Amino acid sequence: MASTQKVLYLEKAKGAFVMSDAPILKPGPGQLSVKVISAALNLADWKIQAYDFFITKYPAIFGGDIAGDVAEVGKGIEGFSKGDKVYVLLPVHVSVPLAGPNACSSFFRGWYSNEFAGFQQYTLVPADIVGKIPSNINYDQASTIPLAFTTAAFGLLGPAGTALDPTLEFKPNKIITYASAHHSNFLRSLGVTHVVDQGEVPASGFTEAAKEIAGAPIKLVFNLVIDGEAAGVCLDILNRDGQLADVNGEAKGSGNGRKVYLIFGNLHPPNNREFG
Ligand SMILES: NC(=O)c1ccc[n+]([C@@H]2O[C@H](COP(=O)([O-])OP(=O)(O)OC[C@H]3O[C@@H](n4cnc5c(N)ncnc54)[C@H](OP(=O)(O)O)[C@@H]3O)[C@@H](O)[C@H]2O)c1
């Protein structure tokens, strides 16, 4: 196996991506070295280049979602062999939770580190959060799954303290979405019972529409849109004892007993690890 590889660095904050050479690192105990075949563009990748957050040291290698082949297996690992097709969500480093106004908020800061990053030919990964690619999807498809799936899973099923209360039975009579009409068939195939067309109904009108369709107090809302309006609309829809899971890290506080859980689609904070 070669000892050097090509890597794509971001030279400096808000700078340009530059191709360079770097050593291929040996996996430590509990780690795999993965030959990256497909690296998806994670939203964080372009946002960090544009706005400069999370990264503490430059030049930096990005790349959060990858799929590839196990190139080398570190000590103490069972269940993985050289050549296994795998996919994984990076980065792996996270610090302490942010103190927030919400007792239920648990949003972590995380950052990339160059040994655990996808925009290079070989990356190290911790074996305990690596998945094997099912035979019915290819590398490109697999690389798009980790962040999106993780975020959705935390929002719907996450463990206590990171997402919706697990003691609450999730057996809704109605699942109402606010989305473009062209997503209707797909959403219904997933179990959605009502689609409110965002082309027809403005966001400000969704509250009334959702309440009318529900015909009963709305207990759970999952917001997957980051804009100035969405979180407020979601809170308006919620019943007083309801819960909102929100991917928007800026989503604020709870009112009248309504809880807001900030969803962080990252498997690496200690309290997300086991769920991951
Ligand atoms: N907190 C976290 O850990 C975390 C993790 C992953 C993603 N995120 C954030 O979550 C958001 C969604 O990510 P994604 O990967 O799903 O993005 P995406 O692939 O761009 O999809 C966004 C979807 O939202 C729809 N949409 C946009 N504005 C809407 C509105 N006002 N009302 C209803 N639907 C609307 C779009 O509809 P059309 O198809 O009709 O345009 C599209 O289907 C992003 O802002 C991302 O930054 C957060």
Automatic annotation (TrEMBL):
Alcohol dehydrogenase-like N-terminal domain location: 28-134
Any Pfam family the entry gives: ADH_N
A GO molecular-function descriptor: oxidoreductase activity, acting on NAD(P)H
Protein name: Alcohol dehydrogenase-like N-terminal domain-containing protein
Organism: Collybiopsis luxurians FD-317 M1
